[in-house]
């Protein structure tokens, strides 16, 4: 699973996919995850980063993360490989 | 350490459909709703559990006083009667009685509740199609106003008053064409066909029946004020004819209930508050019609109103919590709450406003809100835009004071506590939650079914 490297992500959570012109909005946690994915971080790293920054149990985050990734897949923002 | 961390919100994303952007953009329209009458929603849930109903005594009194003002500033003689079926929790009824409201009941069960609340018999209006002879006798002995619904009841009442040689104060319920369809013609006597006039003749000819009033209840959540002008005119026509033919002055016209609350009807194009007429507009047409009908000054009838939902909807809140989030096969977000349609019956009619009770970001999602029942019908909102809610987050459902706490049912889950916040900001339980015992206590087990081996 890899996120498209050319996605533009703004601080306010605005996402633009230049390959097809789609745009999206996400919340701050979503924007952080996309930024971390773009840096090529693994789930373990992302989990650590998020749980340091936000008040969330790792198990809760892991479930939300899976859900979020499946939404990114639905929107063709990640490659399945 | 923990307190320095940022508040977590479940990550969420949504596609921006530029063609469909509305003027609100992607922001939600509301702020978190953290307090009711100054009392924290979180504390209420900690104290009374989730879900729970909360009633604002302050809002009831404010709404009632505003309705009284709307009518009394336009008409000299006005009396409200609290429609018990709308919310008959005793504490709620007593707020209305303290404000000066009589009781309007539609069954001997509601009648008994009103008597036990201490309402004097002669301030109870007894409506409804089911009044047994025994019920009628109680109402007769208490000198209550009996609103006759059909000829069978009328004959029972004539018989009974003759047996007891006691005079009953009666009115008839009149149904009529007010231009609103479907017409509610199953209750009372029809105006246009002359049935109502026949019933009046019958009453006037009965030794022990005193014709004191005329009643109608033309529908509920009425959006057309003109329907009330027609109703007031048709009742006035009967009253004036009774005066002319029998030289009998009708003491009151009871226009029933039916004013809408500020809820949004399912499928409505505009939100409720933008499309419903105000209570002043209803008061204006009703009082204008009666004042201009040509009554002699001394014959001007008392105007009775049985306003239900418009009087209590605003004062009721349902607090609840998120049980789970999931995604449906088509990608839509679904949020499962700990309250369902068994306690929020009005979800079938209204698109209830639901607000998170804690801070949230400006990112929103379209979602379906389900209740906890393992039943397909348990849909609280079929499509609503809300922030990403986390498991355990609290929400407030608004304007649920009417009909939910009477039409709710014990089904799969049990009914929660009902609480009231008084005008000093103190909270009280006014109805305990059900327990397994509440449900099993009336059950009886035949001897041969008491045991089994699995
Ligand atoms: C006879 C009568 N009066 C008053 C009411 C209260 O109506 P609403 O809640 O529409 O004001 C009802 C409700 O059905 C009713 O049947």
CATH class of the largest domain in chain B: Alpha Beta
Poorly predicted tracts of residues of chain B: 19-28
State the helicity of chain A in percent bands. Answer: 40-55%
> What is the number of E strands of chain B?
21
CATH homologous superfamily classification of the largest domain in chain B:
Alanine racemase
What does this structure look like?
The complex is a heterodimer of chains A (81) and B (454). By secondary structure, chain A is an alpha+beta fold. Helix content of chain A is 48%, strand content 19%. Chain A has three helices and five strands. Chain B folds into two domains: 140 residues, Lyase, Ornithine Decarboxylase, Chain A, domain 1 (Beta Barrel); 257 residues, Alanine racemase (TIM Barrel), CATH 3.20.20. In chain B, strands 4, 14, 15, 16, 17, 18, 19, 20 and 21 form a nine-stranded mixed sheet that branches. Chain B has an eight-stranded parallel β-barrel with strand order 5-6-7-8-9-11-12-13, surrounded by seven helices. In chain B, strands 2-3 form a two-stranded antiparallel ribbon. In chain B, helix 8 runs parallel beside helix 10. Chains A and B meet through strand 4, helix 1 and helix 3 of A and strand 1 of B. Bound molecules: pyridoxal-5'-phosphate (PLP).
Write the layout of secondary structure elements.
The complex is a heterodimer of chains A (81) and B (454).
Chain A: E1 2-3, E2 8-9, E3 14-17, E4 22-26, H1 28-38, H2 43-53, H3 58-74, E5 78-79
Antiparallel strand pairs in A: 1-5, 2-3, 3-4
Chain B: E1 13-15, E2 35-36, E3 39-40, H1 41-48, E4 52-56, H2 57-72, E5 78-83, H3 90-99, E6 102-105, H4 108-116, E7 124-126, H5 133-141, E8 145-148, H6 151-164, E9 168-175, E10 189-190, H7 195-204, E11 209-215, H8 226-246, E12 252-254, H9 272-275, H10 279-291, E13 302-305, H11 309-312, E14 316-327, E15 333-337, E16 354-356, E17 364-370, E18 379-387, E19 394-397, H12 404-407, E20 418-421, E21 427-431, H13 436-440
Parallel strand pairs in B: 4-20, 5-6, 5-13, 6-7, 7-8, 8-9, 9-10, 9-11, 11-12, 12-13, 15-17
Antiparallel strand pairs in B: 2-3, 4-14, 14-15, 14-19, 16-19, 17-18, 20-21
Helix pairs in contact in B: 2-3, 2-10, 5-6, 8-10
The complex binds pyridoxal-5'-phosphate.
The site of pyridoxal-5'-phosphate has 17 residues of chain B, from helix 11.
């Amino acid at each position: 699973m890899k996120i498209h490297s050319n996605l533009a992500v703004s601080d306010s959570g605005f996402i633009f996919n230049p390959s097809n012109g789609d745009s999206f909005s996400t919340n701050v946690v979503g924007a952080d995850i996309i930024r971390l994915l773009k840096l090529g971080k693994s789930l373990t790293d992302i989990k650590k980063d998020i749980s340091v920054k936000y008040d969330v149990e790792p198990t809760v985050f892991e479930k939300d993360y899976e859900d979020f990734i499946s939404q990114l897949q639905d929107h063709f923002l990640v490659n399945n490989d | 350490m923990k307190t320095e961390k940022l508040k977590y919100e479940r990550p969420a994303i949504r596609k921006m459909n530029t063609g469909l952007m509305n003027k609100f953009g992607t922001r939600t329209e509301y702020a978190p709703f953290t307090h009711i009458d100054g009392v924290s929603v979180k504390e209420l849930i900690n104290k009374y559990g989730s879900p729970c109903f909360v009633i604002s005594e302050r809002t009831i009194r404010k709404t009632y006083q505003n309705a009284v003002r709307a009518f009394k500033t336009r008409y000299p003689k006005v009396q409200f009667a609290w429609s018990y079926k709308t919310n008959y929790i005793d504490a709620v009824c007593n707020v209305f009685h303290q404000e000066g409201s009589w009781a309007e009941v539609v069954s001997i069960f509601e009648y008994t509740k009103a008597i036990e609340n201490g309402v004097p018999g002669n301030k109870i209006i007894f409506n409804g199609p089911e009044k047994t002879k025994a019920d009628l006798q109680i109402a007769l002995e208490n000198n209550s106003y009996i609103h006759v619904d059909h000829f069978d009841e009328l004959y029972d009442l004539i018989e009974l008053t003759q047996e007891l040689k006691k005079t009953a104060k009666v009115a008839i319920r009149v149904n009529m064409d007010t231009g609103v369809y479907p017409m509610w013609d199953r209750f009372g006597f029809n105006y246009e066909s002359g049935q109502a006039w026949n019933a009046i003749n019958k009453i006037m000819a009965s030794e022990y029946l005193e014709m004191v009033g005329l009643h109608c209840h033309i529908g509920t959540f009425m959006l057309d004020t003109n329907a009330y002008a027609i109703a007031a005119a048709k009742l006035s026509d009967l009253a004036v004819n009774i005066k002319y033919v029998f030289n009998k002055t009708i003491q009151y016209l009871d226009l029933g209930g039916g004013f809408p609350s500020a809820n949004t009807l399912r499928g409505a194009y505009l939100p409720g508050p933008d499309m419903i007429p105000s209570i002043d507009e209803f008061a204006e047409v009703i009082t204008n019609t009666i004042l201009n009908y040509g009554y002699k000054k001394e014959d001007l009838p008392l105007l009775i109103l049985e306003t239900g939902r418009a009087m209590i909807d605003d004062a009721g809140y349902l607090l609840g919590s998120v049980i789970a989030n999931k995604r449906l096969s088509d990608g839509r977000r679904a949020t499962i709450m700990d309250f369902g349609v068994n306690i929020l019956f009005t979800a079938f009619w209204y698109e209830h406003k639901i607000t998170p009770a804690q801070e949230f970001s400006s990112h929103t999602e379209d979602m379906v809100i389900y209740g906890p029942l393992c039943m397909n019908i348990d849909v609280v909102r079929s499509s609503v835009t809300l922030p990403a809610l986390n498991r355990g987050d609290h929400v407030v459902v608004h304007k649920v004071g009417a009909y939910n706490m009477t039409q709710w049912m014990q089904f799969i889950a049990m009914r929660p506590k009902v609480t009231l916040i008084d005008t000093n900001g103190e909270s009280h339980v006014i109805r305990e939650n059900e327990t397994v015992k509440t449900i099993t206590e009336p059950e009886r087990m035949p001897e041969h079914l008491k045991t089994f081996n699995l």
